[in-house]
Amino acid sequence: MKGILKIAFKLLVNDKGKFAALLVGITFAVFLMNMMTSMFAGILSKSSATVINVGAKVWVMDPAVNTVQSSIPMPDYILDAVRSINGVRYAVPLYSGGSLVKLANGTYQSATILGLDDASLLGRPQLIQGNIADIYSENAFIVVKDSEFPKLGNPKLGTEFELNDHRGVIVGIAKVTTSGLFGVPTLYTTYSRAIQYIPSTRYTISYILVEPKSASAVAYIKRQVKALGYEALTKDEFMKKIAHFYMFQTGLGTNVFLMTIISFIVGLSISGQTFYTFILENLERFGALKAIGARGRQLIYMILFQAGFTAMIGYGLGIGLSSFVIAMAKLRISSYAAIVTYKNLAFAFLMVLVIAGISSYIGIRKVIRIEPFDIFRG
Predict the structure, then answer these.
(1) Positive or negative torsion for Cα 262, 66, 220, 117
(2) % helix / strand / coil in the chain, to the nearest 5?
(3) 25 belongs to a structural domain
(4) Which end of the chain has the least Cβ crowding within 10 Å, N or C?
(5) Closest by alpha carbon to 54, among 182, 178, 143?
(6) Which pairs with CB-CB distance under 8 Å and at least 24 residues apart come from 246-250?
(7) For range 46-72, the mean pLDDT
(8) Is 289 exposed, middle or buried (0-12, 13-18, 19+ CB in 10 A)?
(9) Which residue range is the domain that position 332 belongs to?
């Protein structure tokens, strides 16, 4: 078997043109598939940025909420009701909204405002400059230093701005795990200051952040919150709900899916056609091997080896090229939303196996039917 595979390898790489064409087809397909799925994974991650950065274990919200940006305010009595549920260690309100910020140069910039509970500051970001206690100072705000930070004029400690005719002062600069999706800077302040500075409806609580006493208490908390007419979700469940919304209720998921399928078809067509041509050109050699005693099973192993070897090389080149492009894009465009995940790599690997399998099947059908007599007679 080792000798048969060695012959298969030499037959494959001997025709450098066909071998290169096979590699180009698979590499291009893997490159496109990984780029599309990585972009989609990055978008889904950024769409849940607030959930990830705040880090609360359980979120209470209106059942109609689809994304963290589309919060629906809840009345104050819901907070008291949640706090009274057996199994809740503590529950605090979170304000999430948007507003226009007037910078010192007179320009306006939209920003996401997160109002943290005054007493606990649950969900506060990690500061890289300033003191968290300064958030209680008059007109105090903390700015997140992410890819959208320059849109606020690269503020420093003490930088002033206006928010709905209210004076604001930067007292801290923070970093977060994930930046937002929609290219909007983020400002943190206290809950009381947020609802005072930003016009809102009669109800002001966007979300209620709950810390359960134990993991086993979460199910009971969910049932009690549901009885109130609202919904309680864990951090992971909320992120899945957001991802489900972007995948199935917007055109984003459909477009990425179509582009991925097109990439697969392109790679399959190029590699399949090239591999079939390769088999036709080497048909006499396969016939000669069959004439000197090679069994059909051994010829099948040869074709599977050739298709599999080419697929793995193309997979590695495609993943490497797409990862390099994503890394370069992130260096030039800090807000570029694409991340390479294990799921993306596994999906591309599975598609490559399908391409290799179909290409092998095309070649196997041709080789198995060959008769040595026909080869030598020709």
Answers:
(1) positive
(2) 55, 20, 25
(3) yes
(4) C
(5) 178
(6) 246/43, 246/44, 246/47, 246/67, 247/44, 249/66
(7) 92
(8) buried
(9) 2-46+251-377
Q: Is residue 69 situated within a structural domain?
A: no
Residue 375: pLDDT band with limits 50, 70, 90: low
Rounded (10°) angle between helices 16-47 and 296-332? 50
Q: Which residues pair with 341 in a beta bridge?
A: none
Span 37-48, pLDDT tens digits:
888 888 888 888
- Residue 163 CB neighbour total at 10 angstroms: 21
Q: What span, in angstroms and rounded, lies between the C-alpha atoms of 297 and 293?
A: 11
Q: Are 115 and 190 in contact (CB under 8 A)?
A: yes
Q: Which residues of 66-80 are buried (b: 16+ CB within 10 A; e: fewer)?
A: ebbbebbbbeeebbe
Is residue 82 located within the same domain as residue 26? no
> pLDDT tens digits for 246-286?
888 877 778 888 888 887 888 778 777 777 777 777 777 77
Is residue 271, in this structure, part of any structural domain at all? Answer: yes
Q: Which amino acid is at 149?
A: F
Q: Are residues 304 and 367 in the same domain?
A: yes
What's the structural domain count of the chain? 2
Do 115 and 209 lie in one domain? The reply is yes
CA dist 340 and 333 (Å) reads 16
Residue 112 shares a structural domain with residue 177: yes
Q: Are residues 141 and 208 in the same domain?
A: yes
Picking from 85, 87, 122, the residue whose alpha carbon sits closest to that of residue 230 is 85
For residue 240, tell me if it sits in a domain.
Answer: no
Angle between helical axes of 296-332 and 342-368 (0-180°, round to 10): 150
Q: Does 255 share its domain with 339?
A: yes
The string over 205-234, giving b where at least 16 C-beta atoms fall within 10 Å of a residue's C-beta and e elsewhere, is: bbbbbbebeeeebbeebbebbeeeebbbbb
Give counts: helices (H), strands (E), the chain: 12, 10
Query: Who contacts 5 (Cβ-Cβ below 8 Å, separation ≥6)?
Result: 301, 302, 305
CA distance 10 to 18: 13
The pLDDT of residue 127: 94
CA distances from 365 to 26, 115, 368, 378 (A): 21, 66, 6, 20
